[in-house]
Amino acid sequence: MPATRFAPSPTGYLHLGHAYSALTGWQMARAHGWRWLLRIEDIDRARCRPEFTDAIFEDLAWLGLDWERPVRVQSEHMAEYEAALGRLQDMELLYPCFCSRREIRAEVAAISGAPHLWNGADGPVYPGTCRGLSPDERDTRKAVGVAFALRLDVAAALRQTGPLTWCELGEGALPARPELLGDVVLARKDIPTCYHLSVTVDDARQDITHVVRGQDLKAATPVHRLLQALLGLPAPVYHHHPLLAGPDGKRYAKRDHALTLRSLREAGNSPAEVAAMTGVPVEA
Predict the structure, then answer these.
(1) Looking at the whole model, is its pTM more than 0.85?
(2) How far is CA 152 from CA 63, 89, 100, in A?
(3) d(CA 132, CA 12)
């Protein structure tokens, strides 16, 4: 049976933008007879908190949404991400990157006439500084304890997969150009996964056929499509919905504490009233 999911990170309380995304996917699932699943994306150990996970369940239930059990919690599946990472390493598609964010920004800024190295939303595209390091250079830096991340060699990966496309509802097949995001980070020294890898593995493990998520993640989809091809995973259909914005035109974010579902509930709003604020009212 087709399935979609809502996958928040427990780094704060859910706000109206989260409610909009959850309601959009839930209503699509109800309209088409799909399954609607919940996933807790808690790989960010520094920012995720158990109390925020509990609040996610409470807020969604208060809104009147229901989901399948058990809920997939990313921190409980690190071995699966590590196994996927190992497959990519065996394919010789990963390399250690010792650059800090500051060093990457400085290097990109020093390259004159290189607007293609800035992708706007996420800052500079990694220019491949560590890609050409010799095995000896890599081992030497690791031996002295230099922190590193593991990046995907996108050009080498595309040579294995060939051209790829992905399907967006309402738009059809779109060309996947993961090279526009550069060699993305897939893991860090102390964590065997990052967002791109974990979300790709999770969607396959949960048999997600339709990914419903915000427009801000549309640019990352070609990377996910590349990982699906490399790992032999199915490719879902995507629907990237608009982002909900406030009266000032700025999209809602966790810093907007006054617009958390918790605070709106405490102010006396009903679930129907909060749903109406998102423009996706809950149907009986």
Answers:
(1) yes
(2) 40, 9, 16
(3) 39
Task: List the beta bridge partners of residue 149.
Answer: 97, 188
What value does the CA radius of gyration of the chain take, rounded to a whole number of Å? 20
Question: How far is 129 from 149, CA to CA, in rounded Å?
Answer: 13
Query: Distance between CA 43 and CA 55 in Å, rounded?
Result: 17
Largest CA distance in the chain: 64
Q: Label residues 191-220 b or e (16+ Cβ within 10 Å = b).
A: bbbbbbbbbbbbbbebebbbbbbbeeebbb
pLDDT (tens digit, 0 to 9) for every residue of the chain, 284 residues total?
999 999 999 999 999 999 999 999 999 999 999 999 999 999 988 889 999 999 999 999 999 999 999 999 999 999 999 999 999 999 999 999 998 877 677 655 555 444 444 453 456 788 889 999 999 999 999 999 999 999 999 999 999 999 999 999 999 999 999 999 999 999 987 788 999 999 999 999 999 999 999 999 999 999 999 999 999 999 999 999 999 877 776 777 766 555 899 999 999 999 999 999 998 866 65
**Closest of 212, 240, 191 to residue 81, by C-alpha:** 191
